[in-house]
């Protein structure tokens, strides 16, 4: 069959999650981005917070992981071109994501998940078995090409690339997806349920799916060219944790359009 | 290549289970030999170790530029750029050094993961006649004394090749061609 962008919008997804109570434990994902001059919101002891930006794939990893764990966490969105001065106390370069609880701050989307599993071991997603844990880390490394390749799609959009330049960027994406298709042996990269690799890679496939039609890519994602990944994408998109983090297609496309033209992106697109 | 599809080292094998990539191997070793664990078990201290490794990444990515200069006899602006990248990476890590080790009172995860890169910079610098090579107590006092302490560790003595062998290897190493991996044996 064929899939359309509409199949993956939040509208449809709202009807499918079986445990919407878990969605509400992540609060604040749809709040306006704080900017220079905005005061730092106080954070009570024992409360957890993720500093994010609604359309950043790296920050989305942290929101997804927290949602998948079912932990209570507040999301504070940051305006990345006009950052609040206090945000540099959270991340030395003012990037997202950052995680804060009880005065301890952890940065890097590849480090926050393990930290969350350490703080909340009862909902651990990374395996405790050393070999299985190592396998997940190795697998993340093997799927990493999509995290760099997808920026080529932004470049096509921004620079209105044509011909060979455009084809080269598309080939980089397709080669990455081809490689990852071969690695998916079960329902999820984590096995029978969504795991570490699934959550850390999902934001990039989400964006590939979002941009496939608008950019008229020769092979859309999802499609029968990549049967395992396409089934996986449907499965994981319907997961309640995805609903907690993913933005509706029109808001997301609105952000990307504002992002590629340069100047100040619309971090509050859709709000 | 059956052990590691990327054909790279290090690769660790025990009881038929194979793990590769240096940081992953270290965590795996701690997992199967927990009595001698080096990574902290406290989640925050563990995360701090990992964040510190991220901040040293510029050296891991730039050090090979020195090998390229030597192997391909690079001159001029390109040579200067590669050397500058390494020096700036070391400058940034100098700001992070804690005494006596990154791991605190004893060498830890970060110390063992980054030592090999400093070791190689130290070996190749004289071969390239770099003006202020590492170690240099003028430019990098913290890291230079850290390096001396690390080289005296039993683990370092066990793992490091004698300087003459290492420099011999580097001299035979030409990118894309075979090198004398058995130099000194």
TrEMBL record, chain A:
<dbReference type="InterPro" id="IPR050983">
    <property type="entry name" value="GST_Omega/HSP26"/>
</dbReference>
<feature type="domain" description="GST N-terminal">
    <location>
        <begin position="46"/>
        <end position="124"/>
    </location>
</feature>
<dbReference type="GO" id="GO:0050610">
    <property type="term" value="F:methylarsonate reductase activity"/>
</dbReference>
<dbReference type="Pfam" id="PF02798">
    <property type="entry name" value="GST_N"/>
</dbReference>
<dbReference type="InterPro" id="IPR010987">
    <property type="entry name" value="Glutathione-S-Trfase_C-like"/>
</dbReference>
<dbReference type="InterPro" id="IPR004045">
    <property type="entry name" value="Glutathione_S-Trfase_N"/>
</dbReference>
<dbReference type="GO" id="GO:0004364">
    <property type="term" value="F:glutathione transferase activity"/>
</dbReference>
<dbReference type="InterPro" id="IPR005442">
    <property type="entry name" value="GST_omega"/>
</dbReference>
<comment type="similarity">
    <text>Belongs to the GST superfamily. Omega family.</text>
</comment>
<feature type="domain" description="GST C-terminal">
    <location>
        <begin position="129"/>
        <end position="269"/>
    </location>
</feature>
<dbReference type="GO" id="GO:0045174">
    <property type="term" value="F:glutathione dehydrogenase (ascorbate) activity"/>
</dbReference>
<protein>
    <recommendedName>
        <fullName>Glutathione-dependent dehydroascorbate reductase</fullName>
        <ecNumber>1.20.4.2</ecNumber>
        <ecNumber>1.8.5.1</ecNumber>
        <ecNumber>2.5.1.18</ecNumber>
    </recommendedName>
</protein>
<dbReference type="InterPro" id="IPR036282">
    <property type="entry name" value="Glutathione-S-Trfase_C_sf"/>
</dbReference>
<keyword id="KW-0560">Oxidoreductase</keyword>
<feature type="region of interest" description="Disordered">
    <location>
        <begin position="1"/>
        <end position="41"/>
    </location>
</feature>
<dbReference type="InterPro" id="IPR036249">
    <property type="entry name" value="Thioredoxin-like_sf"/>
</dbReference>
<dbReference type="InterPro" id="IPR040079">
    <property type="entry name" value="Glutathione_S-Trfase"/>
</dbReference>
<dbReference type="GO" id="GO:0006749">
    <property type="term" value="P:glutathione metabolic process"/>
</dbReference>
<dbReference type="Pfam" id="PF13410">
    <property type="entry name" value="GST_C_2"/>
</dbReference>
<dbReference type="GO" id="GO:0005737">
    <property type="term" value="C:cytoplasm"/>
</dbReference>
TrEMBL record, chain B:
<comment type="function">
    <text>Exhibits glutathione-dependent thiol transferase activity. Has high dehydroascorbate reductase activity and may contribute to the recycling of ascorbic acid. Participates in the biotransformation of inorganic arsenic and reduces monomethylarsonic acid (MMA).</text>
</comment>
<dbReference type="InterPro" id="IPR036282">
    <property type="entry name" value="Glutathione-S-Trfase_C_sf"/>
</dbReference>
<dbReference type="GO" id="GO:0045174">
    <property type="term" value="F:glutathione dehydrogenase (ascorbate) activity"/>
</dbReference>
<dbReference type="InterPro" id="IPR004046">
    <property type="entry name" value="GST_C"/>
</dbReference>
<feature type="domain" description="GST C-terminal">
    <location>
        <begin position="42"/>
        <end position="174"/>
    </location>
</feature>
<dbReference type="InterPro" id="IPR004045">
    <property type="entry name" value="Glutathione_S-Trfase_N"/>
</dbReference>
<protein>
    <recommendedName>
        <fullName>Glutathione S-transferase omega</fullName>
        <ecNumber>1.20.4.2</ecNumber>
        <ecNumber>1.8.5.1</ecNumber>
        <ecNumber>2.5.1.18</ecNumber>
    </recommendedName>
</protein>
<dbReference type="Pfam" id="PF00043">
    <property type="entry name" value="GST_C"/>
</dbReference>
<comment type="similarity">
    <text>Belongs to the GST superfamily. Omega family.</text>
</comment>
<dbReference type="GO" id="GO:0006749">
    <property type="term" value="P:glutathione metabolic process"/>
</dbReference>
<dbReference type="InterPro" id="IPR010987">
    <property type="entry name" value="Glutathione-S-Trfase_C-like"/>
</dbReference>
<dbReference type="InterPro" id="IPR050983">
    <property type="entry name" value="GST_Omega/HSP26"/>
</dbReference>
<keyword id="KW-0560">Oxidoreductase</keyword>
<dbReference type="InterPro" id="IPR040079">
    <property type="entry name" value="Glutathione_S-Trfase"/>
</dbReference>
<dbReference type="InterPro" id="IPR005442">
    <property type="entry name" value="GST_omega"/>
</dbReference>
<keyword id="KW-0808">Transferase</keyword>
<dbReference type="GO" id="GO:0004364">
    <property type="term" value="F:glutathione transferase activity"/>
</dbReference>
<dbReference type="Pfam" id="PF13417">
    <property type="entry name" value="GST_N_3"/>
</dbReference>
<dbReference type="GO" id="GO:0005737">
    <property type="term" value="C:cytoplasm"/>
</dbReference>
<feature type="domain" description="GST N-terminal">
    <location>
        <begin position="1"/>
        <end position="37"/>
    </location>
</feature>
<dbReference type="GO" id="GO:0050610">
    <property type="term" value="F:methylarsonate reductase activity"/>
</dbReference>
<dbReference type="InterPro" id="IPR036249">
    <property type="entry name" value="Thioredoxin-like_sf"/>
</dbReference>
């Amino acid at each position: 069959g064929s899939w359309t962008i509409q199949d993956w919008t939040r509208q449809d997804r709202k009807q499918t999650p079986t445990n919407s109570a878990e969605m509400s434990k992540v609060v604040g994902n749809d709040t306006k981005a704080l900017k220079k001059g905005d005061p730092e919101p106080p954070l009570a002891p024992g409360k957890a917070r993720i500093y994010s930006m609604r359309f950043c794939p790296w920050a989305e990893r942290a929101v997804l992981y927290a949602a998948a764990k079912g932990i209570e966490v507040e999301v504070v969105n940051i305006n990345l071109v006009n950052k609040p001065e206090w945000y540099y106390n959270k991340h030395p370069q003012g990037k997202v994501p950052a995680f804060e609880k009880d005065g301890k701050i952890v940065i890097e989307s590849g480090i926050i998940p393990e930290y969350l599993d350490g703080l909340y071991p009862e909902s651990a997603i990374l395996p405790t078995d050393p070999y299985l844990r190592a396998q997940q880390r190795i697998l993340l490394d093997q799927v990493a090409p999509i995290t760099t390749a997808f920026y080529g799609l932004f470049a096509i959009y921004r620079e209105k690339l044509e011909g060979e330049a455009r084809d080269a960027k598309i080939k980089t994406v397709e080669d990455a997806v081809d490689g990852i298709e071969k690695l998916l042996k079960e329902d999820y990269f984590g096995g029978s349920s969504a795991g570490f690799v699934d959550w850390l890679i999902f934001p990039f496939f989400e964006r590939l799916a979002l941009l496939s039609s608008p950019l008229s890519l020769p092979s859309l994602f999802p499609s029968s060219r990549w049967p395992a990944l396409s089934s996986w994408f449907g499965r994981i998109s319907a997961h309640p944790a995805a609903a907690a983090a993913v933005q509706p297609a029109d808001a997301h496309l609105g952000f990307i359009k504002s992002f590629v033209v340069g100047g100040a992106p619309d971090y509050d697109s859709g709000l | 290549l059956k052990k590691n599809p990327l054909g790279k080292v290090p690769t660790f094998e025990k009881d038929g289970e194979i793990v590769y990539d240096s940081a992953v191997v270290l965590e795996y070793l701690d997992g199967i030999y927990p009595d001698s664990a080096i990574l902290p078990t406290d989640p925050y201290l563990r995360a701090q170790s990992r964040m510190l490794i991220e901040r040293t990444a510029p050296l891991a990515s730039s050090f090979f530029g020195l090998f390229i200069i030597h192997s391909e006899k690079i001159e001029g602006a390109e040579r200067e750029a590669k050397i500058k990248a390494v020096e700036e990476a070391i400058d940034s890590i100098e700001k992070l050094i804690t005494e006596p080790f990154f791991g605190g009172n004893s060498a830890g995860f970060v110390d063992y993961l980054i030592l090999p890169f400093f070791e190689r910079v130290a070996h190749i610098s004289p071969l390239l006649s770099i003006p202020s090579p590492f170690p240099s107590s003028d430019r990098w006092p913290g890291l230079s004394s850290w390096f001396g302490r690390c080289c005296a560790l039993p683990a370092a003595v066990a793992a490091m090749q004698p300087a003459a062998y290492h420099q011999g290897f580097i001299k035979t190493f030409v990118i894309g061609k075979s090198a004398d991996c058995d130099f000194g044996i």
